[in-house]
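Handoff note, outgoing to incoming analyst
You'll be picking up this chain. Sequence as last confirmed:
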Amino acid sequence: MIKILFVYFYIFVFVLSAKVVSVDECIDKTLKNHPDVKKAALGIFEKKSSVDIAKADYLPQINVSAQYNPIDTFAVPKDNQFETIEDDSWRVDAVLNQKIYDFGKTTSTIKAYEKDENIANLSLNDAKALLVYNVKNQYNLALLKTKEIEVRKKDLKTKEELYKQAKALVLQGLKTEADATSILSELYIAQDNLAIAKADLNKALTTLSLYTGERLDADTQLKESVEVKNQNIMSSDMLFKDILSKNLLLKSSQEEIKKDALIYKATKAQNFGSIDAIASYNYQNSLNEYDESLVGVSITVPIYNGGRISAQTQQARIAKEIAKESYNSQKLLLQEEVENLVIDLQRYRYTIKAKEALIESSNATKEIVEARYKEGLATYIEVLDASSTYLFAKLGLLEAKFSINNIINRLDYLQGQIQ
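Most recent structure output, in case you need it:
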């Protein structure tokens, strides 16, 4: 009695000490710790710096330079001849350049870099949504394997009981040794399948550990808020329209098209040059001391540059067209995926109904066949067939529910959902 109480106490303490996690906790830790999120966040700052660099062209550009020559040779006229004098010299220059008008080149460039910043923001959100999708799938896989282990443990226990019964019936002369050996083979197979399920659970927990940055052991308990997500899925056309307006990758492609169009506009503007205001001051100290100052307007128009600007313009135009076709290609792939997901979702809902009906019928059959086997009225083949059918139905139901959750998680990702 004392030993039994001790075992129960140990189990109670073990359950209390086991780590309990939920899918929301795993998602939060992943979004805080995963390097993909940190890398995408740094990308936003990088693109923002590019915008600041482009905006600098609007501001005055001031440069100061100084030069000192310890030895400088000067030619001076003397008696209708030139004599050379060596002395030191130095000068200081200050130049201010202010862009007045460049036919929209700088404005278009700034807007293009702002689109790049928007793309970086969308990439960050997409990285988060993809991580959430992966964490949910691994969490669901761990839940599936946990339940599969429970089912396989029951199946193993059933086959152990059948093997004991078979040995007893062999001793009574009601069954042959071949019957017991066949059931023993099934017992070994059940042990192997249980070991495989445990290994798969450990793999899923290991992957979750890498995502969250926190170790999840085999004794970790996983919370399950909803067994199967009951979500009313609209028609594939309506769903695709909804995804079309929310999908982060498509939004990123749209921004890419706008960015390339702005770059094309900025490249064409190079043909017209620019108008700049210039102011400079120069102080020179050589044989004589003097200073110079200048205030004026500079107009620069490219006449010939070896075809560089025309080639750059053509390159920018092609890049704009490529971005459009890339967007169209993504739309087609997305539509194909959405339609296939909706078809699979409908199929798995029918699968669940079929598996639930099969579980009920196969369980009743299994109980009848096992009772007949004890009385020597059924063969071991009938018993194993009934047991396999029941096991197949239980595992099939779990896998169908797992697949439905994965499909809905994928649809959530395609709709840009981060939680």
